[in-house]
TrEMBL record:
SMART domains: Fn3_like. One of its GO terms (molecular function) is beta-glucosidase activity. Keywords: Hydrolase. Residues 684-753 form the Fibronectin type III-like domain. This is Beta-glucosidase. Belongs to the glycosyl hydrolase 3 family. The keyword Hydrolase applies. One of its GO terms (biological process) is glucan catabolic process.
Length: 770
């Protein structure tokens, strides 16, 4: 049997196997049930396979399982009911072994897991969320993180992940902003390519590689009103130039799987868009992997979008458009056979999807190595090296937004320091959505990090929560003000929470202790399905800060959150402001490192922060327009894209472009000198923007086309060089082709999208050339 011959190509083996399969076996390869429902942990700690899983195998098999080791309130998997790293590898092995031994052809299961910022399993390392990763502007560091995530996940037997998220954020009121890198398509594309390289490694069948699945295809981050899965109003030219760019780059980087988005674009659901899935993805870009739906997306076609009259109609539309696998599997399992019987779909059309899935299984090496390694899982998952990497990423992601009169860094010999706020000692509040349950003491909070940095055991650091995230109670104000009054400076950690109900209860505002009551208390104001109409702090957080300000002490605000916070009063009155996003399990150490100067902040914003929500959308690459302002305000951001301060000072000079005139296919080199004019070493993110001064279609005022993160010692100067050619100058024309037109361009290099040096570049077609 050719399909068992590992010396043959994946394509030939898949062809041979497909020819041996029954209809039920083919359908089985396209379904993906929820994996955590396929086993149960018994009282003695062993794993028992459920009858429902056995029935799936008997009916034709299971192509894939989703989230088998996923642990969170949605799955109901707790620390007590969950599995250790070693046990998780053994559980996947037991499910895989049953499938191989009780199916006619022995086709292995593809286990797919969530790994947005770490494997979503008990014991795995929790890295900063993607919005924080974007703020590092460090693709190589992110690639290292993805290698670590792949090693942890594959060690347990899973071979696919549903990341990276390549959505371009247009409206940060969207609850899934935290899952994205930012608002700029070029930056998203660069980080996405780094994720593909890190997750997939050099070979898909390696012991530390995962099949990456870029999502959500497409324009999911551009929904109406920032509401999750809402309609998208966008023309095809803008779609290609902005939202599709990261996916095109991901495919070029080797992505072999793609997940569709819930939304529709101009009335066509992405799940059944033949234009997206066939014309663009496969025909234009040459993608030859498989496409999977998001969970429940097929059901929306008949009940939601209402573009299908029945389940049979829905699954037939999906297969014909280019869908190959259904996450959750319910619609394919229930309606594919009847759709074939009724003539909605031909078996030849079904075979195309099955073949793509089988081919990837061979490429992943699942037929030769279907199991994980419990011993390796115990060694690599949550390792000290991965914790240190999480700390480094968190340190590079923190953005210093304000630092009046050199308030930061604080001196470590400070007499007393008040640490106040609902996010000062709330472990889950700094992890973000898509996070597993955590054992006590594993997460380093802001309070933990500060106490560790000062070597304090409760004498110099005075803590009080003051208030909660969403509650208006001010019962904790007196204790917080008492602590602050006795201190020399105040660090107040506020913001948001994407923490689902992990059974931690609420915070006692008088003692700061966690109190579990019979009523679930959720502070959640961000995350999937939690969209907002405003971006201000909720509850009594702003009044707390205003009361603390009256004490006249140095006031440092630390934002821990999953989307930008818009609080003009804080921007004006705080002495220093740190934006930490959700910094992950080592976030407390990283924040303390910045507060005390052990880490010079180098994070830069990847989303523009408006002065008020009424300015939205405020992303920096707005098109040229005669509209200059609202009656009440202009459209300039409070903190622009790319912005971030440092404890040192960087100066830019001697910008030049050589040559100053090139042809449409030519290339120029851009040189800029960057000097550390301060007293401490630091890292600067040097950003390149291009402005097309006149074009055949309306163009943005400027677009990011390059960046480099450099380290400079005090007094050191470095010449930063960028190449500018077709990729940096082209745009999508009216006919949807990518073109470079003759004309004048401004080349801008600086520390952010609002501050830069400018030089000219001319593109001119030589006479007689084409």
């Amino acid at each position: 049997m050719d399909y068992k011959n590992k010396l043959l190509s994946a394509g030939r083996r898949a062809d041979d196997l497909l020819g041996r399969m029954t209809l039920d076996e083919k359908i089985g390869q396209l379904v993906q049930p929820f994996g955590w429902k396929c086993f149960e942990k018994t009282a003695d700690g062993s794993v028992e396979i459920t009858d429902s899983f056995k029935e799936h195998i008997a009916r034709g098999g299971v192509g894939s399982l989703y989230g088998t080791l996923r642990a969170d309130p949605w799955t109901g998997v707790t620390l007590a009911a969950g599995l250790s790293p070693e046990e998780g590898a053994e559980a996947l092995g037991k499910l895989q072994r049953y499938a191989l031994e009780h199916s006619r052809l022995g086709i292995p299961i593809l286990f797919g897991e969530e790994c947005s910022h770490g494997h979503m399993a008990i014991g795995a390392t929790v890295f900063p969320v993607p919005l924080a990763i974007g703020s590092t502007w460090n693709p190589e560091l992110y690639r290292s993180m993805c290698r670590a995530v792949a090693a942890e996940t594959r060690s347990q037997g899973a071979a696919a992940t549903y990341s990276p998220v390549l959505d371009v954020v247009r409206d940060p009121r969207w609850g899934r902003t935290e899952e994205c890198y930012g608002e700029d398509p070029y930056l998203v594309a660069e980080l996405g390519a780094a994720a593909i390289a890190g997750l997939q490694g050099e070979r898909l069948d390696a012991a530390d590689s995962l099949l990456a699945t870029p999502k959500h295809f497409a324009a999911y981050g551009s929904s109406e009103g920032g509401r999750n899965a809402q309609t998208v109003h966008m023309g095809p030219r803008e779609l290609h130039e902005v939202d599709l760019l990261p996916f095109r780059k991901a495919v070029a980087a080797g992505a072999r799987s793609v997940m569709t988005a819930y939304n529709e674009i101009d009335g066509v659901p992405c799940t059944t868009s033949r234009y997206l899935l066939q014309d663009v993805l496969r025909d234009e870009w040459g993608f030859d992997g498989f496409v999977i739906t998001d969970c429940g997306a097929l059901g929306m076609l008949a009940s939601g979008h209402n573009t299908a009259e029945s389940g049979e109609d829905a699954v037939a539309q999906a297969i014909r458009a280019g869908i190959d696998m259904e996450m959750s599997g319910e619609m394919f399992r229930e309606h594919l056979r009847s759709a074939l019987s009724a003539g909605w779909l031909s078996e030849a059309e079904l075979d195309k999807a099955v073949l793509r899935v089988l081919k990837l299984k061979f490429e992943l090496g699942l037929f030769e190595r279907p199991y994980g390694d419990p011993a390796r899982a115990g060694e690599v998952i949550g390792s000290a090296a991965h914790r240190e990497l999480a700390r480094q990423i968190a340190g590079e992601s923190i953005v210093l937004l304000k630092n009046e009169r050199g308030t930061l860094p604080l001196r470590k010999d400070i007499r007393k320091l008040a640490v106040i706020g609902p996010n000062a000692n709330a472990a889950y509040n700094q992890l973000g959505d898509y996070t597993s349950p955590q054992p006590p003491g594993r997460i380093v909070t802001v309070l933990d990090g500060i106490c560790s940095a000062l070597g304090d055991e409760g004498e110099r650091v005075l803590y009080a929560p003051g208030c909660r995230i969403r509650d208006d109670s001010r019962a904790g104000f007196p204790r917080a003000l008492e602590c602050a009054a006795a201190a020399d400076a105040i660090v107040v950690a506020v913001g948001g929470s994407s923490a689902r109900d992990f059974g931690e209860g609420t915070i006692d505002l008088l003692t700061g202790a966690s109190v579990v009551t019979e009523h679930a208390w959720s502070e959640m104001e961000c995350g999937e399905g939690i969209d907002r109409a405003t971006l201000n702090l909720l509850g009594a957080q702003l009044p707390l800060i205003q009361e603390l300000r009256k004490l006249g002490k140095p006031l440092i605000v630390v934002y821990i959150n999953g989307r930008p916070i818009v609080e003009p009063w804080i921007s004006e009155h705080a002495d220093a402001i740190l934006e930490a996003w959700y910094p992950g399990q080592e976030g407390g150490h990283a924040i303390a490192g910045v507060l005390f100067g052990d880490v010079n902040p180098s994070g830069r914003l990847t989303v523009s922060v408006p002065k008020q929500v009424g300015q939205l959308p405020v992303y920096y690459y707005h098109r040229r327009t005669r509209g200059k302002r609202y009656l009440e305000t202009d459209f300039k951001a409070e903190y622009p894209f790319g912005f971030g301060l440092s404890y040192t000072k960087f100066e830019y000079g001697n910008l030049r472009v050589e040559p100053a005139v090139i042809g449409p296919g030519g290339q120029a080199r851009v040189y800029a000198e960057v000097t550390n004019a301060g007293d401490s070493a630091g890292m600067e993110v040097v950003q390149l923007y291009i402005s097309d001064l006149a074009a055949s279609v309306t163009r943005p005022e400027k677009m990011l086309k390059g960046f480099q993160k450099i380290s400079l010692a005090p007094g050191e100067t470095q010449t930063v060089v960028f190449n500018v050619g077709r990729e940096q100058l082209e745009f999508v024309g009216a006919d949807l082709s990518r073109i470079v037109e003759d004309g004048e361009f401004n080349v801008m290099v600086g520390p952010n999208s609002a501050e830069y040096l400018t030089a000219g570049l001319t593109v001119r077609t030589e006479r007689g050339s084409s």
